[in-house]
Design a protein that fits this description.
With 364 residues, the chain is α/β, with parallel strands linked by helices. It contains 13 helices and 13 strands. The strands form three sheets. A seven-stranded mixed beta sheet has the order 2-8-7-6-5-3-4, sandwiched between helices. The protein has a four-stranded antiparallel beta sheet with strand order 9-10-13-12. Helix 8 links the parallel strand 5 (154-160) and strand 6. 44% of the residues are buried. The model has no long low-confidence stretch (mean pLDDT 97). The protein binds 4'-deoxy-4'-aminopyridoxal-5'-phosphate. 4'-deoxy-4'-aminopyridoxal-5'-phosphate binds next to helix 5.
């Protein structure tokens, strides 16, 4: 090909998602496998969302209403913010892409925690901007170090709370002090993909910092606690002036009609949300006891996933577990070559994971 491709595009390492169940079963010729690799909700989609999507099916020959009036109104009521401050996306990944397209250009810098969600770096690179990686401290975001990395080229700072993959949350107090010191021409993006799962007192809630003036964006998703990862719906809450800017780079109909119907109904399904939270919290504690009993090191988490130190090559453990039909996420690409990340599954899936771990750690 004779195309001229920007160096910064070629420098992007494509995002490596968790292995899908279908792919494992096809490649290994096995059935009945389980997946604890992508922080999904094991309970399935919210029943109310499923019913709403079934009802919406007959309208799929029409484009959705732009820009998702019903979902926006429902979200505005749910969050108690005006709908003008909300942008919906095809997953929160779509919001990350929009922020980058609208606000970044070559030469700009964006501060990202490391390790954290890999898409931050990818979207920054897409715009030809530089992602400045600030290492975590004790597995949590190092806010003073992130602040110290700010310079005249800084346009944005990503805060992942709780952080993926470590599961650590930061306090409202620490964040407030940080935000007060960030120059007001720098956008602070608070990614709350897992916020519903947090049990820690005093945890940062990004919406508290939103006042329609301060340059803060809060990102949320329906992929985790609401059980709708395959539907692809997320949203960002921000000052209305910024929402107006983001709307200029948003693709029309970026959240499809089925997704709008499902997400709107999911917000009304508090029973499903509570069931999810109770499963995740109960099962996390069961996991911790099982690992304590085996003296295996792990990192308690505020999300629906956590890290386990397997004390040997995580890529190898991952492969061995695949052969047992259990998909986990090796953390090699995140700079933790001996850690795996698993999310909470159904009780029987979690039990099966522990049995598989016992087998792969003591092969004989
Ligand atoms: N942020 C974080 C921290 C995530 O872990 C994920 C999904 N793995 C996302 C954002 C994107 O989620 P989605 O696009 O499904 O909303």
């Amino acid at each position: 090909m004779k195309l001229t491709i920007p160096d910064y595009t070629l420098a992007i390492a494509p995002y490596a998602p968790g292995k899908p169940l279908e792919a494992l079963e096809r490649e290994y010729g096995i059935t009945g496998s389980i997946k604890l690799a992508s922080n999904e909700n094991p309970l399935g989609p919210s029943p109310k969302a499923m019913a709403a999507m079934q009802a919406a099916m007959t309208r799929m020959h029409r484009y959705p209403e732009e820009p998702g009036y019903v979902l926006l109104q429902r979200l505005a009521a749910h969050l108690a913010v005006p709908s003008e401050q909300i942008i919906i996306g095809n997953g929160s990944d779509d919001l990350l892409g929009m922020l980058s397209r609208a606000l970044l250009q070559p030469g700009d810098e964006v501060i990202v925690p490391s390790p954290s969600f890999l898409m931050y770096t990818i979207v920054v690179q897409t715009a030809g901007a530089a992602a400045v990686q600030v290492p975590l401290r004790d597995m949590a975001l190092d806010l003073p170090a992130m602040l110290a990395a700010v310079n005249a080229r800084t346009r944005m700072i990503f805060i992942c709370n709780p952080n993926n993959p470590t599961g650590k949350a930061i306090s409202q107090e620490a964040f407030d002090a940080f935000l007060a010191a960030v120059p007001d021409n720098v956008l602070v993006v608070v990614d709350e993909a897992y916020i519903e799962f947090v049990r820690q007192d005093g945890c940062l809630r990004g919406l508290r910092c939103l006042d329609n003036e301060t340059p803060v964006v809060v990102l949320r998703t329906f992929s985790k606690a609401y059980g709708l990862a395959g539907l692809r719906v997320g949203y960002g809450v921000m000052p209305a002036e910024l929402a107006d800017v983001i709307n200029r780079v948003r693709m029309p109909f970026n959240v499809n009609a089925m997704a709008q119907a499902g997400a709107t109904a999911a917000l009304d399904d508090d029973e499903f949300l509570q069931k999810t939270l109770s499963l995740v919290h109960t099962e996390l504690d069961i996991f911790y006891s099982a690992l304590d009993a085996r003296q295996i090191r792990y990192f308690p988490s505020q999300a629906n996933f956590f890290l386990i130190d397997v004390g040997q090559d995580a890529a190898e453990i991952y492969e061995r577990m695949l052969r047992l039909g259990v998909i986990v996420r090796p953390m090699t690409g995140y700079g933790y070559p001996q850690f795996i990340r698993i999310n909470v599954g159904l009780p029987e899936e979690n039990q099966r994971f522990i049995e598989a771990l016992d087998r792969v750690l003591q092969p004989d």
